[in-house]
Amino acid sequence: MIRPYLNRRSLRFVALAGLAGCATPPKPPELEAFERMRADPAVQAAAKRTPDLVSSSDRLMTRAREQWQDNELSEARSSALLGQIKLKHALAEADQENARQRIASAETEIRTAQEEYARVQRELNAVNEQVNLLKRLQESTAERQKLAQQITTEQARAQASDRISEAELAVKTADTVNASSHAREAYAAAVDNLARARQEMQHGNSQAAEMNAQMAKAKADEATSVAKPLYEQEAQAAENKARAEALARDAAAIPGIIVRREARGSLQRLVIPLPAERLFVKRGTSVAREKETGLDPIATLLKKYSSYPVQIVGYTDNRGRAGEQLAFSLARAESVFSSLALRGVDAKRMVVSGQGAADPIADNRTATGRAANNRIEIVFLYQ
Amino acid sequence: MYAIVRAWLNGTALAAALLAGLPEATAGEADDLQVMIDRARNGVPDLERQDDRGATRDETAILRVWLDEAWKLRSEQRYDDVRIVLDRCEAQAEMIRKKIQASKVVARATEREEDLKRLRENIDKTKKAIAQATLAKAALEARAK
Hints:
The structure holds 2 protein chains of 2 kinds.
Chain A: H1 8-22, H2 29-39, H3 41-49, H4 51-69, H5 73-176, H6 179-182, H7 184-202, H8 206-252, E1 260-264, E2 267-275, H9 296-304, E3 310-315, H10 322-342, E4 350-354, H11 367-373, E5 375-382
Parallel strand pairs in A: 3-4
Antiparallel strand pairs in A: 1-2, 2-5, 3-5
Helix pairs in contact in A: 2-4, 2-5, 3-4, 3-5, 4-5, 5-7, 5-8, 7-8
Chain B: H1 2-18, H2 26-50, H3 57-75, H4 79-144
Helix pairs in contact in B: 1-2, 2-3, 2-4, 3-4
């Protein structure tokens, strides 16, 4: 009811206000947000899951729009907010359901994958086991080969060592025959090869060591075979010389005897001259009984040096004819031969001869000289 | 606990609605609404505790604002408006609870999908390992021959 005191101006103001009140007000932002949310495609999916919530939300949207149209903005905002909440609830429900489905799907796939994982694990284990077996087998084979190699190496080493020992022995044998002098080149080669063999052995080269040792042995053997005859000759000569010296010393020790040594080529002679008056009486051809003891030291000497061949040579002075001299000297030599044989001297090693007046050792013009030339010579022959 | 609170809120709201047309009843109505607002407020920390993933921080903040608004309206004795806001708060709390549940289920789904992904990666790795082992085996067999 309009009071009577209101003027025309006031009436115009009230009319404008009424018009303004009848116009549609601006849409509340809550309602705009609600509409945007409702347009989200996710809401369609949520509507399937929770149709009641979405329907309720839709009803609230309708109401909010009506309230907005009716200019009931506060109510419109409340309805829009409540509608948003319902939609959010529906979306949460949908999210939860969706997540549950994801879980179910994941669980199914996990089970399948676990089975597959177990299968491939088993397969991997099987292959790994085979690989390990093969590796162990190969390691074992390699170990055996290594062991065999070691055995072979040790055998080769032992063999080389044996060859070196043999070569050392051969070199020592060569030393015993003075091969360093008699077979210088072969001996030097043997020593050189032996040193090389020892060196190779130290460096673990058994094969080379063995080869050098074999060469050393061959050279040492060669040196020995070359040197041995020379060495034996040398030794024999030395022995002969020593024995001859001893013979000379023993012969010189016989009283009244002056021995002499002669060389005729390679043949050596030790001559023991026995004056005839020492064995015979005047012109006798047999050793006088009372003088036979003069032959005892000679017989002892002959038996002591039993390996020497001996000549028993008779000599005369120059008186008489040559034929008589030869016969006379031979008869006397044979008589001495018999006496010596009777004293145990081996007859086979004694050779008897008569030289007559040959080879006088004194002047036949004097009685002393002739007495000296009438003699028996015991001649030891040696190389 | 929350179910009890919600039942109580529903009952109280119904009672409040029944009593809305009786102006004489406004004296006790203010107290009832205060109790409802307080209980709703007390329920918010419980929601926050449940939301260990922080999926509903914004919604919870809005809920608090609305509860403050309800308190303000109650102070202004606009009891009908208080009921409207409290209804909205109840729906918001319900929605928050559902969203928390959903976020947990989503997290679980993501976790299981990650498990599945890891499992498949392991399968792929194992298959590659099988291929390599097979090659190694073939090489060893060839060497053995």
